[in-house]
Design goal:
Length: 117
């Protein structure tokens, strides 16, 4: 079979042990992975949370598991911005700035913006 499998998705939602187990299985089969900006506290909805979670996941994957960084695809969460709720006003800016930060600080990782609704 030609091509590369892409697992959509894993996250730190269930903790580091489950994350390591899932990532190790994906690596064993040569699959790339989409990593959601989601941890034990929930989905990342600010620039700081997005970058904190993505960097944590990257370090676990690359430094501890030996995952090829070019097989990591981060999804730093796109949220609706036209909700009329003031606290949502910065969602688009936070997403864009997080993608720039990922490009600059997490070498060879890719980015996906999953728009689902």
């Amino acid at each position: 079979v030609q091509g590369k499998a892409v697992v959509n998705s894993i996250s730190l939602k269930e903790g580091e042990a489950a994350f390591r187990e899932q990532a190790t299985k994906c690596r064993r089969f040569g699959a790339a992975i989409v990593v959601m900006a989601f941890d034990e506290e929930g989905q990342a909805d600010t620039f700081a949370r997005k970058t904190e979670i993505c960097e944590r996941a990257y370090r676990l994957l690359v430094d501890e598991i030996g995952f090829p960084p070019e097989d990591i695809i981060f999804d730093p969460n796109i949220f609706a911005i036209a909700t009329g709720i003031e606290e949502h006003n910065n969602y688009a800016v936070d997403f864009i700035e997080a993608t720039q930060w990922i490009r600059e600080h997490l070498p060879h990782a890719m980015i996906s913006g999953g728009v689902s609704n």
